[in-house]
């Protein structure tokens, strides 16, 4: 059995973010699914995470919470073919900046809409839905401009691990508009990466969990 254990859910965006580097570098680990079908696993996350969230990585005595910290931990202790954090300090800052952008202004903003549907799928709070969808459109436009001047490397790295799941699900919540072709292309490129495709396939049986109804694509 591997020393590394990852607690997470196959349908969870932040779990994908942690799975991507593990898959890309072929790092051996045991996956513990927090789905209610596997009782006890989520209880562990509730115990070790201040908000009971997953993914959680256990590495021997070390418990690492938060997907970004998990990637930093893997980069430091399990380096592999995929350079998770750029060696150049300036590029590392950009990678960490984009990690924050995708988590805070794509993933978490889209989650506002998802939460509104979880609370009441028949009557989601319209202000919350509008805030989430407008926030996504604003972030898409920002990213479109950023991508005109910058490149997000299309290999598995901190930035792309944050970008892939957030753009995957954001597009289900509010489609990336025609005015943002660079963002649409980036999403397509990232979800075609083999570790991403594996996450997407393994999550397929859980698509009925998507509170807005999963679209018939991807
Ligand atoms: N900032 C956290 C966010 C983790 C997060 O929101 N995880 C979701 C699944 S994608 C979760 O635990 N949801 C269950 C809950 O909030 O109760 C990270 O980067 O790991």
What does this structure look like?
Helix 1 runs antiparallel to helix 6 (158-173), helix 1 crosses helix 8 and helix 4 runs parallel beside helix 6 (158-173). The protein has helices at 13-24, 41-48, 67-77, 89-119, 126-149, 158-173, 181-191, 194-203, and strands at residues 4-8, 30-33, 56-59, 62-65. A four-stranded mixed beta sheet has the order 2-1-3-4, sandwiched between helices. It has 218 residues and is α+β, with helices and mostly antiparallel strands. The chain folds into two domains: 4-77, Glutaredoxin (3-Layer(aba) Sandwich), CATH 3.40.30; 89-203, Glutathione S-transferase Yfyf (Class Pi), Chain A, domain 2. The model has no long low-confidence stretch (mean pLDDT 97). The structure holds glutathione (GSH). Glutathione is lined by residues 12-14, 52-55, 66-68. Residues 2-82 form the GST N-terminal domain. This is Putative GST-like protein YibF.
